[in-house]
Design a protein that fits this description.
GSP17M-like_dom; Low_temp-induced_all0457; General stress protein 17M-like domain-containing protein
């Protein structure tokens, strides 16, 4: 299995990528989405999926059914990120870290969950920071032979160019995601969505 990941400035682009991944045959149990929800901009229909995952059910088990992954969005908070809506195996792992479970990687939480799934730590920091700043993360576990198609789907759905975004963050003095930092100020959430130059 290979983990493919895309960061999106626009939630609609991310949800479109999830739908395309599911349509391509990737089971929704192998896809995760974590979206910053500091401004309550995403309606999850009152789902308690994240609460159930924190209680041990696991988001993948909670979702099920014909509604696909997005039908199981649940609310939670991730240290350093703030309020998010999330669904899938990555979110369940991050919730476990928040609840005190040991997650690999020194950073734990979202960074640890990503690195445990095979994402390089340097990239995991950028992905976590992107969510902190208002973005949406889509991650899928796929067979090696399906990975190129899954990566193409993420790229064609307007995912962020990770190296460009890393450079922009570093140019502003950023050195890495800090789970102990305050959540990004609400008035600054979503500023990255205005950066059309970073679209792949």
């Amino acid at each position: 299995m290979k983990t493919v990941t895309g960061l999106f400035d626009n939630y609609d682009d991310a949800s479109s990528a999830v739908a395309k991944l599911e349509a391509s045959g990737v089971p929704h149990s192998d896809i995760s989405i974590v979206a910053n929800n500091a401004k309550d901009r995403i309606d999850n229909g009152g789902s308690k999926a994240a609460d159930d995952a924190a209680g041990g059910a696991g988001l993948g088990a909670v979702i099920g059914g014909a509604g696909g992954l997005l039908a199981g969005l649940g609310l939670m908070a991730i240290p350093g990120v703030g309020p998010v809506v999330a669904a899938g195996w990555l979110a369940a792992t991050a919730v476990g870290a928040v609840g005190g479970a040991v997650v690999g990687g020194a950073a734990g939480g979202l960074v640890g969950a990503l690195t445990d799934s095979g994402v390089p730590e340097d990239d995991a920091h950028v992905y976590a920071e992107g969510v902190r700043r208002g973005g949406t993360l889509v991650t899928a576990k796929v067979d090696e032979q399906l990975a190129p198609n899954a990566e193409r789907i993420l790229d064609q759905s307007n995912s962020v160019n990770l190296e460009d975004r890393r450079g922009e963050y570093q140019a502003g003095g950023w050195t890495g995601f800090d789970a102990d930092a305050e959540s990004y100020p609400t008035n600054e959430i979503g500023r990255d969505r205005n950066r059309d130059v970073n679209r792949v």
